[in-house]
Amino acid sequence: MLGTILATKQQEVAALLSRTTRADLFAGCADMPPPRGFREALRHPGHQVHLIAEVKKASPSKGVIRDDFDPVQIARAYEAGGASCLSILTDETYFQGRLDYLSAIRHAVTLPLLRKDFLIDPAQVYEARIAGADAVLLIVAALSSPARLAEMQKVAESVGLDVLVEVHDAHELAIATAAGATLIGVNNRNLHSFEVRLETAEELIPAFPAGSIAVAESGIFTAGDTRRMARAGAQAILVGESLMREDDVAAATRRLLATNADFEARHEPNGGR
Which residues participate in catalysis according to the annotation? Predict the structure, then answer.
């Protein structure tokens, strides 16, 4: 499946570059307002674990996740529920996302936004910045080498974007580390088989570089899962499907982060009493 998606991305990049140039896209980034600090939001004190809440209508493995899909209202609900950042699916072919969701959501909330897509070319990074992203996802499995990953990170940083580097096994973690990644996500879902194992994060996070921020992605449905990922060393979780299926997204977000309320209560004077 990943190979099919990447072939589509190559076609999309070719179509984009038939309409404009990388140089023009790069120049367009200079006209954008300063990005909101995605990485900084995940370092903000007062949380046991931060939530990157995902705006996602569909996926190849689950089909349509939410029929009454209003990305702006969902983003507002996530913010009201206590999310620290938002992840916005922009892939149209496989996830039914849109690039313009970024700009619409940016005007509706104050949280930092991640463009989640399969980025393989600098043009897509510049496009993300212009659309309103504050960070981009770089998937190690979608890039060919540590050098290519490092190059794409430098491209993102050159226009002020933070980078979340995604891995799903020890080999990919070694590539991310060699490329200097310090904001690293473990996808508990195998991108080839779609199998989900929370043990993946538990196995990989202890090997992260010192000082890095660990994000656990996929397969997180309950406050118990959140606590489990926090015990594994995750400073943040990225969650989409389980929240997108809820009628009351804000309330579901609060329930997922109930472990943070417990944490904060324990650290208040008199144990929160």
Answer: 54, 56, 116, 166, 187, 217-218
